[in-house]
Amino acid sequence: SSESRSVPCVVMETCVLPCSSDGGDIDVIRWLKTEENFMVHAFQYGTDQLKKQAESFRGRTSLFPEQISRGNASLQLSHVKVSDQGSYLCQTFTSNSGAKTWVHLRVKGEHTEENTLRRRTH
């Protein structure tokens, strides 16, 4: 099954990108940023697998480990940047099925780079 949703977020805040599996206990979770094909977060064998994580997401992503067995694959993204805006794909695999969820992250905020530059020049 696949679905799509849009999530608004503010720069520098923490945002949750929702994803869940009807199948209950999840074996594998993969979060990708689709435009750049960045690996955002991966979970397998009961633990985070971050070797291939894109540099720009280092230290800013987490899942909800105690809820994964109940089908929650949502991603928490902290210190959100303007460059985080875009489309994300959540892939979940259980022992008997797989599912895809697309999440579009819309980032708005005071701290856009243009504003910072404008302030600096005056």
TrEMBL record:
Q: Which domain of life is it from?
A: Eukaryota
Species name: Periophthalmus magnuspinnatus
- Per its record, how is this protein called by name? Ig-like domain-containing protein
- The Ig-like domain sits at 1-106
- Subcellular compartments: Membrane
Any single Gene Ontology cellular-component annotation: external side of plasma membrane
Q: Which SUPFAM superfamilies match?
A: Immunoglobulin
**One GO term of the biological process aspect:** regulation of leukocyte cell-cell adhesion
Q: Which GO terms describe its molecular function?
A: signaling receptor binding
Q: Does the keyword Disulfide bond apply?
A: yes
Give coiled-coil spans as residue ranges.
Answer: none
The taxonomy runs: Eukaryota, Metazoa, Chordata, Craniata, Vertebrata
Alphabetically sorted, this entry's keywords are:
Disulfide bond, Glycoprotein, Immunoglobulin domain, Membrane, Signal
Task: Write out the transmembrane intervals.
Answer: none
Look up keyword Transferase and say if it applies: no
